[in-house]
Amino acid sequence: MNDTTGLSSPTVPPAACPAYEGAVRLSGTEFQQSPAELYRGLRRRHGAVAPVLLDGDVPAWLVLGYAEVSYVTAHDDLFARDSRRWNQWDTVPADWPLLPFVGHQPSVLFTEGAAHQMRAGVITEALEVIDQFELAQRCRGIAGPLIDAFAGSGRAELMSAYVHALPMRAAVQMCGMPAGGADTEDLVRDLRISLDAGPGDDPVAAYGRVQERIRRLVDEKRTAPGPDVTSRMLRHPAGLTEEEIVQDLVSVIAAAQQPTANWIGNTLRLLLTDDRFALNVSGGRLSVGQALGEVLWLDTPTQNFIGRFAARDTTLGGRRIRAGDMVVLGLAAANTDPQIWPEGHAGEENSAHLSFGNGEHRCPYPAPLLADVIARTAVETLLERLPDVVLAVEPEELSWRPSVWMRGLTALPVRFSPVVQ
């Protein structure tokens, strides 16, 4: 039975977890249409830090407050990234669907201190060589054939035909893989499953396939290097092991594809459904920039991130956090915290949002800039090619993936005047 906040009834957690009394399951269709209501309900009931249960009723803390998320991400010594600190490993089955997020691997995501600075530095140096103007041109070159494939029909489902395909092709090209072909499409599918599994999906197996494909890419680039991210990481004087490079490339590609795709999709939805943008949608570059920024505040692609593990007993938001407790970063909730938007005017045009993280473990520079180039080019190119594009359904008919982690549409059907090639 649900109450008016959209929250599931409080669940009694295992007896071994008295601190989580009244915890709420982070699952179900409450996340599908209005997660903001769920976050507001959690905040009213529990404050800035809420006890929650993940898949399989595994306990964790969800940090909802902007100040609290900022504090956690700024204090790596207290809220650390190495998941081997977690005090719940004895309760987690081998097929736990969140294992790709949490299971420790030799990835930059789980490193700390000097090791993290070194690994993040390798990624930064590999990415900062990318010319943003050339990337925009490459993205336009990817967008053209994708749009051509459906432009003559006057109708399209953009999430599958365009939104997910473009950033993946851009990401794999940056890393030295061919942009087309079954290999890339398989990678797209497996990345989606590993990051945002649906009914019947096996995220652990999918993540294994992703790793294997990237491992083959590293082997290929060791033999035949090129002007790409993978080759630059292999050549870097830090001398990362092959497994470290594989894991870090998986992180780079995953971050460039799924979140960027949902950023594109959420921005197109806003442009096509919000009257504030209606007069400027047709090639409106200014409104595109405003919509991209607003989405990062209000519909950020990464809603929540399994981020930290308490290094010792501490308090946060009035809660007693035990050593080894998992802390989930509530990025979407923090971005709409009424403490920073007291009048409810979230979405102002500034970049103080937490959508790219914060602190030492935020997205490494210049990844957010590259993601912006990909997303902006994708949206602008579509609107330029199809200037009269409109939704093919009523806005309320659009549905969101029922994901705790990613905020993205299941489909974005549109119609437009057919374009004769």
UniProtKB/TrEMBL annotation:
UniProt xrefs under InterPro entries: Cyt_P450_B (IPR002397), Cyt_P450_sf (IPR036396)
Superkingdom in the source lineage: Bacteria
Stored Gene3D superfamilies: Cytochrome P450
One GO MF term: monooxygenase activity
Family that this chain belongs to: Belongs to the cytochrome P450 family.
Protein name: Cytochrome P450
Organism: Streptomyces genisteinicus
